[in-house]
Amino acid sequence: MDQIQAMRIFARVVEAGTFTRAADSLQMPKASVTKNVQALEERLRVKLLNRTTRRVTVTADGAAYYDRAVRLLADFDDLEASVSQARTTPRGRLRVDVGTTVARLLIIPHLSEFQSRYPEIQIDLGVSDRTVDLISDNVDCVIRGGELADQSLVARRIGNLEFITVAAPEYLQRHGVPRHPRDLESGHRNVIYFSPVSARRYPLEFHKDGEVIEIASPAHLGINEGNAYISAILAGQGIGQLSRFQIHKYLENGQLQRVLEDWKHPLLPIYVVYPPNSHLSAKVRAFVDWVVELFSRNPLLQGESRPA
């Protein structure tokens, strides 16, 4: 038995919660994962995991072993990196998860720049507006907008999004231009965003001179994906709120028109987030530093306005 490999497999099973998910993330047969964990238990002469038909849970001995194993594996990786000079030449497979709009407008158009700089890093790019679980889904880092609920994760703020209220000119010709947020409660069609995970509906939000107004209903249309939301507003479905970064070209070419300009929306913070494993690998560090640089180059990702 390769003890280091068995320790890695055991740690992955603990983090994933099932042998099947661990096997998928490791790209190994489930039988091999099971065999390695059993061999590790036989070597240690203790039971590390309690198995059920749906899930595995960690025994007291298994929890203690996991904590030490994770630290040892991090130290081992650090040792190998320093010997192989991986810090100057990061390498390996990197799994990143980003939202659909950020992927389409920013990451993918500039990805060749990162690949040229770090040719030995292979990227698995997950693109979804659903929030992934970094630990159980075995994701190295994610880019997320909004305040973070999980305080155990390490987060680095990389930007801010300015949201503005817009509609297509043809929509405004049919329904008129609103003069006050309360106008949206009658006579207008509102398009809102709802979470693809929790189905939480996010109201249109307006701030001015200490007054806060939220328009949650009536909502003519709710959408849970960023690119589809943009398409709906462009198609004249109604009035919505989008980041200037997403739609600046549509403002410039006249496909969208800003309304209620005196009313503001709070800036939305953007973070690059990774698990708190006390060890940031060279490949993750390289990606995080590149993303920070990429965001800093674009004023629209720092909450800095441009004329519409």
UniProtKB/TrEMBL annotation:
Matching entries from Pfam families are given as: HTH_1 (PF00126), LysR_substrate (PF03466)
Identify the InterPro entries for this entry: LysR-type_TF_proteobact-type, LysR_HTH_N, LysR_subst-bd, WH-like_DNA-bd_sf, WH_DNA-bd_sf
Pinpoint the HTH lysR-type domain residues: 1-59
Molecular function (GO) terms for this protein are: DNA-binding transcription factor activity; sequence-specific DNA binding
Query: Which of UniProt's keywords are assigned here?
Result: DNA-binding, Transcription, Transcription regulation
Give yes or no: UniProt keyword Transcription regulation: yes
Biological processes per GO annotation: DNA-templated transcription
PROSITE patterns assigned to the protein according to its UniProt record, in alphabetical order: HTH_LYSR (PS50931)
Q: Which family does it belong to?
A: Belongs to the LysR transcriptional regulatory family.
| Name of the protein this chain belongs to | D-malate degradation protein R
Species of the source:
Comamonas testosteroni (Pseudomonas testosteroni)
